[in-house]
Amino acid sequence: MPVRLLVGLGNPGPRYADTRHNAGFWFADRLAADRGSSFRAESRFEGEVGRIVAGGANCLLQKPMTFMNKSGSAVQKLAAFYRIPPAEILVVHDDLDLPPGTARLKAGGGHGGHNGLRDLHRHLGADYSRLRIGIGHPGMRDAVIGYVLERPGREEEQQMRQAIDAALEVVDALVGGDWDLAVRRLHTKPAPNGEKEA
């Protein structure tokens, strides 16, 4: 299935702009800039919306401005207006279970305790796809909230942005409808001897 709507998750405002939880916004902003597009506020869709052409097809971009735990409403409104089914939506979000520097695609599944995904499940069900940007885990469950709302260290931020760079390289395949190719390219890394390993 092609991706017709790509959603970056994050929290609005300068207080949160550089935090780990805003990895989805980082990705969306980079993608728009790379494709010569920009976002504009669309109050009826509770967020900022942009458009790109990739893989020979059109794709909507969205950054919900409702705060992370209310993201589902914004996405549902935009998807309903353009008649985009959940299977054609890709949501980009930070992921505690992946180390910084890692990006992974996932089709469907649970929300894993992520508040943005939890609300998307409430509004869309579980059939949308995800692009997970690794941020690592603080080690203790009680520290998670503070951790995701903090700015990463310099090295960690560089690793996160490298993961975003890698994910940007498969956008054409995703929007063009070649999910398997996108997964193969993103999930395969060069081995030390120069060969490929999964």
> What would you give as the CATH superfamily?
Peptidyl-tRNA hydrolase
Shape: globular
Strand content: 15-25%
Radius of gyration: 16 Å
Q: Can you give a write-up of this model?
A:
This protein is α/β, with parallel strands linked by helices. It has one domain: Rossmann fold (3-Layer(aba) Sandwich), CATH 3.40.50.1470. Helices cover 34% and strands 23% of the residues. It has a 7-stranded mixed beta sheet. It has a two-stranded antiparallel ribbon with strand order 8-9. The two termini are 23 Å apart. 39% of the residues are buried. The model has no long low-confidence stretch (mean pLDDT 92).
Explain the layout of strands and helices:
Layout: E1 5-8, H1 23-34, E2 40-42, E3 47-54, E4 57-64, H2 71-81, E5 89-95, E6 103-107, H3 115-124, E7 129-134, H4 144-148, H5 154-168, H6 171-175, H7 179-187, E8 189-190, E9 196-197
Helix pairs in contact: 1-5, 2-3
